[in-house]
Amino acid sequence: MHADFFTGLFALLGLAVVVVALLRHLGLSPILGYLAVGLIAGPNGFGLLPDSEQTRFLAELGVVFLMFTIGLEFTLPELLANRRQVLGLGGSEVLLVTGLVAGLLWLWGLDLRVALLVGGALAMSSTAVVIKQLAEQMELATPHGRASVAVLLFQDAATLPFLILLGTLQAGDAAGAGGAELSERLLMAAVVFTLLYLAGRWLARPFLHWVARAESPELFMLAALFVVIASALVVHEAGLSPPLGAFLAGMVLGETEFRHQVESDIRPFREVLLGLFFATVGMLLDPAVLLAQGLPILGLALLIVLGKGVLVTGLARLFGETRESALRTGISLAQAGEFGLLLVAGVLGLGLLPEGMGQVLLGAMILSMALAPLLIRRNGEVARRLLHRRSVQPVHPEEVLRQESAGLEGHVLIVGFGRIGQNLATLLAEDQFDYLALDLDPARIRHARQAGLRVVFGDATQRAVLEGVGVARASALVITHDRFEAARATVALARHMNPDLAILVRTRDDRHIDELLDAGATEVLPEGLEASLMLGAQLLLLLGRPESEVAERMAAIRAERYHPLRSFFHRQGEGEAERGYERHLHTVALPAQAHAVGRRLDAIALPDESEVVAIRRGGILVPAPRGEAVLREGDIVILGGPPPALEEAEARLLQG
Questions:
Q1: 385 CB neighbour count, 10 Å cutoff
Q2: Given CB 3.0 to 4.6 Å as the disulfide criterion, which of 46, 68, 147, 286 pairs with 250?
């Protein structure tokens, strides 16, 4: 790689941080930010990022990881269980849009395969935008939310044949290659998929079991990356598109117990590399052409929105949705999507679309995606107006929360519905306590609500959200996630809104106990320290200590904010971020020439953050020594405190 590539990458990342942060602040999809970055930094902009082989390679890796994570979410049982909406509604939408657009473009003179790819691109909607917006509005569990998710699921699966078709164009001449070659590639794809599926069943799962036994997060992440790249490589060697292999690997691993861990490990790579892919799509845009073709772009964007909206609405009615649900489904899916951009970018990269047409098409698709959040946010209001209903007031997310919490009094609020939150919900339900959970993961919320659990989308750091879930009427609030800043904000806000509320906070370690307690938490339970307490209590009981004595001792340690347990010796070379604890233990052996020898403990000016936990003299440990204790040669002074203070304390003991 040359220096200009690194310079361009530096410029790209710098621009991405600013632009994506701005769009997130405005509530828009970060995809639009990456597209804008590519437009600004690309050859048609300021030329900061060259359209090089290295850039395209990294962008293709982003598509590989995207298809892998889609495969993790794609399950045949779910598809078959919802076949009326997934196969019926979703399949009809993809076939009709693809057929109509491809037919028109073929009559206009485009090669049939190119026309099919463009038609398939316009059939896709934005999974990222639609799912996120519907989740924020608490509409994933509504009839139109379920119908929208079903169509998106089929669209994701339908990307596979389009990628195969794109692969035939990349491998040979578009005009010269005929149906025989396409049939051969489809047959090859079926064979390779079958072999990969069987290999995944017989090899991938045992392989990950073997890796997991090492209990090394780094090794497991490497293994997950290896599975993704290996699958992509096998498919590539077979002459097919690498993302196809990644998708199949995701399908296989999605049925294993490693699904969530693999997805967590892959997500950072996917987000960064996929952002680079969309930046390369933005690099294809020419600002001069976009400005000159402003009206055609606007007209085509409106045609996409209106055409897809009307078509999806009609199909949804045909498959049994009510008039309002069908219309809201059509509004929610009336935009282009990420996969559509992927397909059009592939065709443009091969030079198989006229330049002007490609620019107008990309511009219109991006504009429709920019309009999507606004349309989805107002889908209920627009539907009611079009149906001439009396009530045209939009249902805000806060109102949905109020409806969910209506009738609840003295309930428990659970913030974070991961494993701990779900276990708490199970215990509360068994004891017939009312609860309401908040989470920010749309997929988790959808599955939990389908199972009948009371969980809604909401950010507990927002006053309106806490008001909506009835924090003023709640008896307790439990924070189960491990994000300190969000937890502190939630605690402070909830304490202000309900002074009598019992607030429990779970943390991974003891770094922020005091800050959370000062913010208003009733109890802060660090996982590591609580595990130590539980293990110690059980051990003492097994050794014959009375249960009352053990319980009293545990209560005393909690009352001291775990002070006796918050210092420990760390392994050599352990980094500050890895340690995660403010208080460390450190020993200092006093030689004859040490400054502290012969001096009282209170005469040595140790840093305020440090303390002498104990002194070991002649094999006898003296805990919490008094200030008048005189230090002697050979004493082992055990210090407690943060690392910088310990270093300074050691220097003062030895050198003064």
A1: 11
A2: 68
Query: What pLDDT does residue 186 have?
Result: 67
CA nearest to 322, candidates 503, 546, 330, 650 = 330
Sign of CA dihedral 570, 574, 577, 578: negative
Q: Which amino acid is residue 422, in one-letter code?
A: Q
- Of 251-255, 445-449, 561-565, 623-627, minimum mean pLDDT range: 561-565
Q: How far apart are CA 363 and CA 298, in angstroms?
A: 8
Neighbours of 433 (CB within 10 A): 15
Q: What's residue 594's pLDDT? A: 84
pLDDT over threshold 80, residue 201: no
pLDDT digits (tens, 9 = 90+) for 393-448: 444 556 667 777 777 889 999 999 888 888 888 888 888 889 999 988 777 777 77
What is the CATH T-level fold of the domain 576-655, as seen in this structure? Alpha-Beta Plaits (3.30.70)
Strand partners for 478: 414, 504
Q: Are 400 and 141 in contact (CB under 8 A)?
A: no
Judge whether 508 and 580 are in contact, CB under 8 Å: yes
Residue 69 has what pLDDT? 74
Which range is least confidently modeled, 47-51, 530-534, 595-599?
47-51
479 membership: H or E segment, kind and range: strand 476-479
pLDDT tens by residue, 620-648: 777 778 888 888 888 888 887 777 777 78
The C-alpha atoms of residue 272 and residue 62 are separated, in whole angstroms, by: 7
Are the C-beta atoms of 133 and 201 separated by less than 8 Å? no
DSSP letters, 412-451, are: EEEE--SHHHHHHHHHHHHTT--EEEEES-HHHHHHHHHT
Using alpha carbons, list the distances in angstroms from residue 141 to 400, 445, 446, 457, 563: 12, 9, 6, 11, 46
CA dist., res. 9 & res. 301, Å (int): 31
Q: Which residue has the tokens 């507990």?
A: 460
| Side-chain-side CA neighbours of residue 197 (13 Å) | 11
Task: Let me know how many helices (H) and strands (E) the chain has, helices first.
Answer: 30, 10
Helices (H), 216-293: 217-237, 242-253, 259-283, 287-292
| Contacts (Cβ under 8 Å, ≥6 apart) of 187 | none
Region 3-385: CATH code: 1.20.1530.20
pTM confidence score: 0.60
User: Sign of torsion, CA 612 613 618 620?
Assistant: positive
Domain boundaries, the chain: 3-385, 397-521, 576-655
- Tell me the C-alpha distance between 343 and 159, whole Å: 9
Any idea what DSSP says for residue 551? H
DSSP state of 546: -
Rounded CA separation 469/571 (Å):
45
CATH architecture, domain defined by 397-521: 3-Layer(aba) Sandwich (3.40)
Beta-carbon-side half-sphere exposure of residue 235 (alpha carbons within 13 Å): 30
Nearest to 42 by CA among 344, 346, 281, 294: 281
Report the distance separating Cα 520 and Cα 119, nearest Å. 57
